[in-house]
Specification:
Length: about 350
């Protein structure tokens, strides 16, 4: 079991749609905060997040059904989140991402009003009274959600735990939130939304034990308005500047040659920012200029950015049109085609 976990942790590093930021990264204002749609999804679709996503069943299931929305599954367990990442990549679901982070840090990774909908699916009920602050529907967490939800944004709670259901109802009433729907037996109710249409791994176990599934749908005050913090705006401008630096290098990569995310980061004096270069490449498809993003791959020549092109095979086709052979998403004789900006540009 331990060996399998380690293997999954290693594979997690290869998923283009999994973000595992260190605390220091989010503390300085996470790079994608306020920029998820522009710099990762490359659209302006509503963002839906799933908290404690586990294997990502809801994020994946919803992404399959709603191409016009962007979904982000959030969990702190890497071994669990691996399954969702793998499925989304295998199915080429370009409207789903995963974020390995603690829920307490949501405001560090999402801007105010950046999220339109939140799913909380079978969270730990923390049954002891002294642990009530750790419940994902406690006032402490609801305040966080309120800060990142757009006006009118909604929250779904699915749980098998009656005490958590009752506790959440009390909180909703105490703070005068908008309760849109409640049921203590979802599958015998008349509710026609998405809640009964997708089942998680744990939910299926509960149903097999004849446990009733409880469901709540609620929202906050729709009149709430927020203003961006000046420091966040400044950070956003700095990120845009870095993107343009990346693009200026990529445009210099000759036809028939390729470089890597890490090589560009090193050339720009930011050796630890290979992933940030990858985000720049993801965003390049909406850039007004023609950025040859297909010429940027990972450090061993794998086409990790292929999912951000028009089709899963387009990146490979563009490279093959330039005489570069690709097999199983990896460049053959990668060293032969590798273009290192540190050597090529600084030697000029």
């Amino acid at each position: 079991m331990a060996k399998k976990k380690l293997q999954r942790f290693e594979e997690n590093k290869t998923f283009y749609n999994l973000f595992q930021p260190e605390y220091e990264e989010v503390e300085k204002v996470f790079f994608l905060k306020g920029n998820w749609n522009r710099n990762f999804f490359n659209n302006q679709n509503p963002i839906v997040i799933e908290l404690g996503c586990g294997k990502g069943e809801y994020s994946i299931g919803l992404a399959r059904k709603f191409a016009g929305k962007n979904f982000i599954g959030i969990d702190r367990k890497g071994a669990r989140i691996w399954r969702g990442c793998k499925t989304s990549v295998e199915e080429s679901l370009i409207n789903v991402a995963f974020l390995r982070i603690r829920v307490e840090l949501l405001e560090k990774v999402f801007d105010r009003q950046e999220v339109s909908e939140i799913w909380i699916t079978f969270p730990d009920p923390h049954p002891k009274s002294k642990e009530s602050k750790r419940r994902l529907t406690s006032p402490r967490f609801l305040k966080i959600y309120q800060n990142i939800l757009a006006p009118g944004g909604i929250i779904h709670l699915k749980t098998d735990n009656g005490d958590l259901f009752d506790y959440t109802l009390e909180v909703i009433r105490e703070f005068n939130y908008n309760l849109h729907y409640q049921t203590k037996d979802l599958y015998k109710s008349a509710f026609g939304g998405e809640a009964p249409k997708i089942q998680t791994f744990y939910e299926r176990m509960f149903l097999d034990e004849n446990t009733q599934i409880k469901y709540l749908l609620f929202s906050f005050d729709k009149s709430s308005k927020f203003k961006k913090d000046r420091a966040e705006v400044k950070s956003q401008k700095n990120n845009e500047s870095f993107f343009e630096q990346v693009y200026s290098v990529v445009k210099l990569v000759p036809r028939g040659r390729v470089t890597s995310y890490g090589a560009i980061a090193s050339y720009l004096g930011s050796a630890g920012s290979a992933r940030m270069v990858g985000w720049a490449m993801n965003a390049s498809h909406s850039h007004p200029e023609d950025i040859p993003a297909h010429r940027v791959v990972n450090r061993i020549g794998v086409l990790t950015g292929k999912h951000h092109f028009g089709s899963p095979l387009m990146m490979q086709q563009l490279l093959e049109n330039e005489g570069i052979r690709v097999v199983d998403d990896q460049i053959i004789d990668f060293e032969q085609y590798f273009w290192d900006p540190l050597k090529e540009l600084l030697s000029v």
